[in-house]
Amino acid sequence: MKTAAIIGGGVIGGGWAARFLLNGWDVQVFDPDPQAERKIGEVMENARRSLPGLTDVALPAEGTMRFCDTIAEAVAGVDWVQESVPERIEIKHATFAEIQAACRADAVIGSSTSGFKPSELQVGAMRPSQIMVAHPFNPVYLLPLIELVTTNGDAALIETAKTTLESLGMHPLHLKKEIDAHVADRFLEAVWREALWLVKDGIATTEEIDDAIRYGFGIRWAQMGLFETYRVAGGEAGMKHFMAQFGPCLKSPWTKLMDVPEFTEELVDLIAGQSDAQSGMHSIRELERIRDNNLVTMIRGLKAQNWGAGALLNRQEAEMRKGTVQGAVAADLEAAALVETAHRTVPLDWTDYNGHMTESRYLQAFADATDRFMTIIGCDAEYIKSGGSYFTAETHIRHIDEVHAGALITIRTRVVMGEGKKMHLFHEMFEGERLLATGEHFLLHVSLETRKPTPPAPHIEAALVRFAQGHATLPAPDGLGRAIGAPR
Amino acid sequence: MKTAAIIGGGVIGGGWAARFLLNGWDVQVFDPDPQAERKIGEVMENARRSLPGLTDVALPAEGTMRFCDTIAEAVAGVDWVQESVPERIEIKHATFAEIQAACRADAVIGSSTSGFKPSELQVGAMRPSQIMVAHPFNPVYLLPLIELVTTNGDAALIETAKTTLESLGMHPLHLKKEIDAHVADRFLEAVWREALWLVKDGIATTEEIDDAIRYGFGIRWAQMGLFETYRVAGGEAGMKHFMAQFGPCLKSPWTKLMDVPEFTEELVDLIAGQSDAQSGMHSIRELERIRDNNLVTMIRGLKAQNWGAGALLNRQEAEMRKGTVQGAVAADLEAAALVETAHRTVPLDWTDYNGHMTESRYLQAFADATDRFMTIIGCDAEYIKSGGSYFTAETHIRHIDEVHAGALITIRTRVVMGEGKKMHLFHEMFEGERLLATGEHFLLHVSLETRKPTPPAPHIEAALVRFAQGHATLPAPDGLGRAIGAPR
Question: Where does B332-409 have alpha helices with state H?
Fold first, then answer.
């Protein structure tokens, strides 16, 4: 069992504590703030709900956290000391002196500083080479980036730092040279400065600026960053072509501040060469498709959260449903005809690397169709808010044929039985006339308060019974009521 | 049926064509480039595979595309003209003259310009108020942001432009004032300029810069942008507190260029007030959780794509499995004991707004458990690459009890039958000793080339038979072989 010392709590120190604890380390905290325990507790609560589920295997059992009265007590014998005290150099120096007087000589001492260079932190230190910058990003328990800056560092200790960070699920970005504010915060500051001008000059509000970011390049940068994105934009002609085309724009007076490195052939070659090393294993066509897969996956993820670019899609969809069968209610529909409960395209994020729809997405499509059917019979968002809904008790899926991303699929739904609390549905999924799968579902109406079965509202039962009677006049479909392993 | 004219093809014009066509518009293209048809065809191919599945209802039937020999022919009678010609003002002016000589006076004329202001585009125009900036972001068929800039515009036409863009699934960000490069490209340029310095000075390579973006603030910005992110970082004390804390940093010489607006009380109040209007309906605690839900969803989406921050997780997971039962193979395991095929935490993106695990994620957990069992018996990634795998033919799920995000779940798997091409599995999902669900699955071994059933490799069949014989000695579980609607 390894132990980390967290010197300085707050949002950043607390985030580090969470990374260590949830990855099985013990943690000893020193923070003179009387509110430290409460503040770190709040960060831990957020971290416990979000970090452990990131991976598809369980993390080790959580370590134990102990609050200490002195730095000496917190750092004694630990493997890693993480300093996250205020950004004032004299406070940093005093803190390192106390740490080094009591910690092991082979412990990593990482600083969360966003501004200072390691050489500045090391001034006057007992063992300068032990101190390195390990700069995280909020929320520290979720974002993997660590800027690792190690001027005059000890090679073995740097290696330990890297493998430790990786074991915590983090990505140590080891800078070649130290520089004020490292790398990422220089970008943040450039954007922040430009944003202040835009607000001050009345061009855009804070909300409009955030929208300009999150509906556009923010989604691109979440997966490819700046250079790889531009490499794709440059097309098959590559990075040199992109720079030839867009380099000159940099001379336009677009921003308040204009000092730009001279666009020498040497600089162009340097960037083009680095870009080849980074992305040259993929053709531009491949990169475009990787990018699109990522964008679709993230935007649809945000759609499920009804946030950002995903909330836009939900609004668009609500408009699209108006006046179509996808927006119909029971009274609009014939009782003796199957109900169309889905008409949609198989999205990229529903498919495996071969482009075939993944097993669990069949159930997602059927579950969406069930939701749509519930809406049709009056069990809609408003009714659910009032405390009633249907829960699925049992599901039976038969996979008949394969389907690819991009296919237009339709689901038609039969009410096998509907009375009182019970609803028994049989969905058939088609691409054109080709049957892809069937989904048979037994649901119970429940009280969302007690989570126990209760009868639905009368208008819902009436709509359900009407379809059940109408559908009883239709021939029984193949596969209904089948058990796995039963003879066909 | 509405019609749009696309003046200038390429990646941007092609992206516009795709937006219109896939949303049911007809499109008429003018581009003198003899390669235009091929280039737009390539964009259309990418757009067709990614855009239609973004929504959960089908888009209208695709419109028809026609290539025209003149601008006059392309714009005659259309509802929208989109100009995407090269960024030279004299070319833009000549193009608008030809467009306005032939188009309807009530058509929207949008320019894709990233740099020019509408007042510059309108110089010398026949009907200046008809010309507006509608600046999109690549890939135009996926990213929703449009910067709409309308100096001296016609109010009714602007309204038409907005509703049209929304109907195409886009977000018109209507700027209050015109400014060089609008909003988003000013940020892109600030970051690009800073990045050039970092590469030139040997601080970081293009790949390292991209990693600094996509493993850190890029993921944040994909969902909340700059100000809302900082509002959360400021904590309950709010935006004013954040600015009081971080405002002074802006005076440090962190970037090459340092002109910063003066931090007057007026500017602080302006920003704090706008931030309240934007995000004040959520407490900081709510925003933190919304942010974390979004981050988990996007990072896990990237994990499924094995890219960026998600690829890091997959590498971490592979390390975590080493030397544990999650990394075991058949020979390590007792034949007469159920096989542990999952031990994981229910992630945030698997749950509904109430925090309960969503129906289809039960099947995802069971399908992952099946994959894990396949790996255990030797049907691993390498074997699958050689051309054989198991496909699920039938699934039966019983939902016994509910489970929340953050719960640690375990799946234990029994081989009900395994011989020749057939594999019949029964998974039980537990939280501790509480049974949550069972998943019964019938699979067939197939050739991935013919997609027809074939026998598996002998070592796989042997491992399967060994478990089948061992598990036959265990008592039969409740619910095995059940059909929906059958008496219990």
Answer: 359-376, 381-385
Residue range A315-342: mean pLDDT, rounded:
91
Report how far residue A392's alpha carbon sits from residue B398's, in angstroms, rounded to the nearest whole number. Answer: 9
Better-scored residue on pLDDT, A272 or A132: A132
pLDDT on residue A254:
47
Rounded Cα distance between A293 and B312, Å, is 17
Q: CB contact, 8 Å: A120 with chain B?
A: no
Domains of chain B: 3-174 (3.40.50.720), 184-290 (1.10.1040), 324-471 (3.10.129.10)
pTM for the predicted model, two decimal places: 0.91
Tell me the pLDDT tens digit for each residue of A405-443: 989 999 999 999 999 999 999 999 999 999 999 999 999
At A187-224, the pLDDT tens digits run 998 888 888 888 888 999 999 999 999 999 999 999 99
Nearest to B76 by CA among B109, B110, B99: B99
pLDDT tens profile B166-196 = 999 999 999 999 998 899 999 998 888 888 8
Q: What three-state secondary structure class fits A311?
A: helix
Chain B residues touching residue A142 (CB < 8 angstroms): 292, 295-296, 299
CA A423 to mean position of chain CA atoms: 35
Which range (A59-73, A264-278, A413-427, B165-179) has the least confidence?
A264-278
Prediction ipTM score:
0.90
Closest CA–CA distance from residue A83 to any residue of chain B (Å): 19
Name B135's Cβ contacts closer than 8 Å, sequence gap at least 6.
Answer: B111, B112, B113, B114, B146, B147, B148, B149, B182, B184, B185
* CA gap B470, A23 in Å, rounded: 36
Q: How far is A474 from chain B (nearest CA, A)?
A: 19
Per-residue confidence (pLDDT) for residue A469, from 0 to 100: 97
Q: How far is CA A101 from CA A76, A94, A113, B142, B199, in A?
A: 10, 11, 21, 56, 39
Binned at pLDDT 50, 70 and 90, residue B254 comes out as very low
Q: Which residues pair with B173 in a beta bridge?
A: B147
CB contact under 8 A, B142 and A295: yes
- Which residues of chain A neighbour B252 with C-beta distances below 8 Å? 115, 180-181
Question: What residue has token string 């094995």?
Answer: B306
Residue of A nearest to B210 (CA): A225
Report which of B485, B360, B481 is spatially closest to residue A476, judged by C-alpha positions.
B485
Cα angle A201-A207-A209, degrees, rounded to a multiple of 5: 55
Sheet (strand B171-174) strand order: B65-67, B26-30, B3-7, B80-83, B108-111, B131-135, B145-149, B171-174
Read off φ and ψ for residue B447, nearest 5 degrees: -85, 125
Q: Is B400 helix (H, G, I), strand (E, B) or coil?
A: coil
Asked if B248 has any chain A CB less than 8 Å from its own CB, the reply is no
Residue-level pLDDT at A304:
94
Asked whether B169 and B180 are in contact (CB, 8 A), the reply is no
Residue pair B95/B85 in contact by the 8 Å Cβ criterion: yes
Structure token pair of residue B96: 């608008």
- E strand or H helix at A376: helix A359-376
Tokens encoding A137: 């990003």
CB-based contact, A137 to chain B, within 8 Å: yes
* Residue A418 bridge partners (DSSP): A423
Contact yes or no for A226 and B235 at CB 8 A: no
Instruction: Give CA–CA dist A236/B35, Å, rounded.
Output: 14
Q: For chain B, how long is the longest CA-to-CA vector?
A: 89
B210 vs A contacts (CB less than 8 Å): 224-228, 278
Tell if the CB–CB gap between A53 and B347 is shorter than 8 Å: yes
B204: which DSSP letter? -
In B292-433, which ranges are E strands? Answer: 339-345, 388-399, 408-419, 422-431
Chain B residue with minimal CA distance to A181? B254
Pairing mode, strands B434-447 and B422-431: antiparallel
